[in-house]
Amino acid sequence: MSANAGSAGWGVGASNTTEARLLRRHPGVGSLMTAAKRRIPGFAFDYLEGGVGDELCISRNRRALDEIEIVPRYGDDVSQIQTAVRLFGQDYDLPLGVAPMGLSGLVWPDADLFIAKAAEEANIPFILSMVSNVDVETVCSVAPNTTWQQLYAVPQSDYRVVFDMVDRAERAGVRALVLTMDTPMRQKRLRDTRNGLTVPFRATMRTVYQVATSPRWALQVLRSGQPRFANFVPYVEGEATPNKVANYVNEYMVGPTTWDLIERVRARWKKPLVLKGHQHVEDAVRAIELGVDGLIVSNHGGRQFDAAPAAIDVLQDLRDRLGHGVPIMIDGSICSGLDVLKSRICGADFVFAGRPFLAATAALGKHGPAHMAAMYRSELRGAMGQSGLSDISNVESATFRMHRAQPFGNRRA
Ligand SMILES: Cc1cc2nc3c(=O)[nH]c(=O)nc-3n(C[C@H](O)[C@H](O)[C@H](O)COP(=O)(O)O)c2cc1C
């Protein structure tokens, strides 16, 4: 059979597969965000897109990636491109996973399930948020090979909830545990504050109007019910109504993930343990001393601290101090395969993306996250080909610079 079977001619319009049609409708994250904005209520879109304070940190994440330049290399055969990587003893098809996103059911009902299934099919990790709307047992049953679990501290329960979640993760078959560090306090997100965001959501003139003008979203909510904090249902006394579970989360889940808690989780969880959110070198050193297996350097997608640096900008300092002993991963505005390649070239072992996967789900329902993963894959391959790189595990030869003020060079050892 010819390589072009199923195509009618040359060009992006030639193929008529579902993937090709989706690509023509949504060739990048930008159009998925626009479609998501049209399809879901304003308060849900603001929750997805917004950040803390003046949202400077979100722009900083984007700018840091935009400023990176890679000098292209030509002449070598790049027809056999290898994007697979090994992480914590497991092979993944891309150096990319889905970042944890709590309350994703507000953006699109059952998003956790759709994203988990797509990640399993694409063979990339999906980090389920502790405050997900589908519980860890259900998610692991549809995605047994690629589910990781993120946890926050729940100090007001004397950590009983955290330790029970660790045990549940073990029983459910979670591959790696991620403790989030960068939420010692709740922060003011201006958009959510203005919208009076509440779960379960409250009927006001404004929310009713927004829901009424988002019929597909409203229909999905009618089918699946209002988003609820599914993992917390067992911890509520009596009947776990959505209101009671939300009250529980509101009261109990406030406070930092401390070094002491990390030590205690480390003693209990034998599989890979990852910390997410540290950006300071000394914090990273301390984490490694406590036996943590990996770091996701992150500023929570600009949702917690408006002065935080972009993860990619602190990467080299961390690498200089920590060497190559533990995987250093990053997230924040990784919107394309080119961003994945830039991150790898700048020294990240692995990257995660949040909003693009959730926006794709809001725009296209269950087809969204698979489309997003397919786009990352093809863009990454394209960017590698232009950079003269045929193996994503071997990018040290790339010539690049992170800022215009710098000379071009290769990665520091
Ligand atoms: C809607 C939303 C909810 C989030 N919820 C969580 C969460 O529950 N736990 C967590 O560690 N990070 C959470 N984050 C942060 C992401 O895991 C990730 O750090 C960030 O989104 C990466 O930036 P990006 O969205 O630009 O890719 C959330 C982010 C978004 C957009």
Question: What is the strand and helix layout of this fold?
Answer:
Layout: H1 18-25, H2 29-39, H3 42-49, H4 56-66, E1 69-71, E2 85-87, E3 90-92, E4 96-98, H5 104-107, H6 111-122, E5 126-128, H7 136-142, E6 147-151, H8 160-172, E7 177-180, H9 190-195, H10 205-212, H11 215-224, H12 242-252, H13 259-268, E8 273-276, H14 281-289, E9 294-297, H15 311-322, E10 328-331, H16 337-345, E11 350-353, H17 355-364, H18 368-386, E12 399-401
Please describe what this structure looks like.
The chain is of the alpha/beta class and 413 residues long. It has one domain (18-401): Aldolase class I (TIM Barrel). It is 43% helix and 10% strand. It has 18 helices and 12 strands. The chain has helices at 18-25, 29-39, 42-49, 56-66, 104-107, 111-122, 136-142, 160-172, 190-195, 205-212, 215-224, 242-252, 259-268, 281-289, 311-322, 337-345, 355-364, 368-386, and strands at residues 69-71, 85-87, 90-92, 96-98, 126-128, 147-151, 177-180, 273-276, 294-297, 328-331, 350-353, 399-401. The strands form 3 sheets. The chain has an 8-stranded parallel beta sheet. Strand 6 (147-151), helix 8 and strand 7 form a beta-alpha-beta unit. Helix 6 (111-122) packs parallel to helix 7 (136-142), helix 6 (111-122) crosses helix 18 and helix 7 packs parallel to helix 8 (160-172). The longest helix has 19 residues, at 368-386. The termini are far apart. Flavin mononucleotide (FMN) is lined by residues 47-48, 99-102, 129, 131, 150, 180, 276, 298, 300-301, 303, 331-334, 353-355. Flavin mononucleotide binds next to helix 3.
